[in-house]
Write a structure and sequence with these properties.
Blueprint (H helix, E strand, L loop, with lengths): L11 E3 L8 H9 L4 E3 L3 E2 H5 L3 H5 L10 E6 L3 H15 L3 E6 L4 H4 L11 H15 L5 E8 L7 H10 L5 E7 L10 H10 L4 E4 L5 H10 L4 E4 L1 H5 L3 H11 L8 H18 L5 H16 L5 H8 L5 H16 L21
Parallel strand pairs: 1-2, 1-9, 2-4, 3-4, 4-5, 5-6, 6-7, 7-8, 8-9
Helix pairs in contact: 4-6, 6-7, 7-8, 9-11, 12-13, 12-15, 13-14
Length: 348
Amino acid sequence: MLPWFQNDQFPLYLAPMAGVTNLVFRRICKELGADVMVTEFVSAEGIIQADQRTRRYTEFEDEQRPVGVQLFGADGSRMAEAARKIIDWKEPDFIDINFGCPVNKVVSKNGGSSLLRDCPVLADVAEKIAKGVGDQVPVTAKIRIGWDADSINAPDVCTLLEESGMQAIAIHGRTRSQGYSGEADWEVIDECSRTVSVPVVGNGDISTGQDVELRKGTTGVSGVMIGRAAMQHPWVFQEAKHYLETGEHLPPVTPETRWELIIRHARMLLEWNVFPNEKFAMQSMRSRLMAYSRGLRNGKKLRVRFSTVETLSELEDIAAEYLAWCEKGGNESTGFVRQTDPVGSLTS
């Protein structure tokens, strides 16, 4: 068994999310209590061609371990070759195979969740990667419960994956056609966890410690994976752990603490030095800012400001204005947008 499941451990995974779970965000989530990290998915072909941009997605820090690199593709032999290259470069704790991504550009290449419709190919890919990697590192997989409501086949897929050498399976409790709408089906996840002997990690609609406690207590999963909730509120990991240990909620995160993390995130992104200049870095940060705004009052007005941020100093100014507004009582009836400024200032 993978070491992070031993001794009755119940690990909290940070879900791999394209454009989100880069090295910087993983660092933040690790500090806030995430146990296991998975990189953004990377193209096996990009790895084989030694594309520098693709290789960047595989970067991680030793402090983030255990960490896995996630691959997508549909050619098992080529993916095994890519996995071996990654192991030579980075020595991750595991290789993860993406059989769950619902995005059209991945599905159209017969990758991600498209293979849920072609189980023989899915099993062939998994087996070739597991055999190709050998005993260098474990290989795991992430799936959805099926392609659509008429073809929910996750229990059968899990059996195939276990037989193909997968040492753990993460399951998002929605079909590919659902995308991220509707509710995750934890009954199917539970059935899968009781169908196979390898650890199953449940994913979907986990946003509080109570959610974690519920799934731990009512299903057979060996851990949970948190995605979209962490995008908005990376404190979810420490809050969940505190709740599991004490049955009590931590005090709400203050606006000051939120802004401290937002500014630190932006600074670390600049220090990562993978962008050609500050403007590009801050533009890439905008989507993270949009997510963070959902934990702050008057988030709609903040998102107007965030949509044009190009420098760290601009972001620091917004933070100062917002906190000053809070100190004055944060009167939402008047808002904090100057009537003469259509772009929006945070002062009333």
